Amino acid sequence: MKDINEMKDSRHRPVILSANYDQVDGQQAGQQEVEQLSLGLQTGRMDGRADIVAQLWRDATAQKEGLLSEWPIHRILDASILICRSLDYFQEAYRQEQLYDPEHPVFDRIPLQGAALSVGICTDNSGIDGDIQDFQRALEENGYLIGERLRILARLLEEMGY
């Protein structure tokens, strides 16, 4: 697996990372070239603000282009799980001086097929201290958009019996 700073494109700055995604990727766990799922900041907007985006990384040796643009539905749901867990984490992150514990960057392991989805701060990101603050700010600025969609998703899941 390549270093996250080598794999990321110039606009994506990963903050939350599931580094073991290849072990929980559905029925193909352990047999996929997909290695990591990340949430991070994408820069380049005209107004200078950053968007929070999800990225799915292939093994960089498997294909020159490391990003996947088409995701099977289970991966979209995995990204949703990562988003929800990250939102929950950031509600309490202010209690830590750096918004995370550098000694214990993985803050959750969620059981899924194959293994557990690790959820943690991407300490391989050389600019994590600033990026995590920008990430939290972006969450706050977009809270109304995120909250609306989460309420709708919760209602739909409840209506479906989940």
What is the helix tally? Answer: 4
Looking at the structure, what is the overall shape? globular
Tell me roughly what share of residues is in helical segments. 25-40%
| DSSP, total strands | 5
How far apart lie the N and C ends?
Answer: 36 Å
Main-sheet strand order equals 3-2-1-5-4
The H-and-E topology, N to C, reads as HEEEHEEHH
Q: Which regions are unreliable across 5 or more consecutive residues at pLDDT < 50?
A: none
Task: Please give a structural write-up.
By secondary structure, the chain is of the alpha+beta class. The protein has one domain. Helix content is 34%, strand content 22%. The chain is built from four helices and five strands. A five-stranded antiparallel β-sheet has the order 3-2-1-5-4. Strand 2 and strand 3 form a beta hairpin. The protein is globular and about 40 Å long. The N and C termini lie far apart (36 Å).
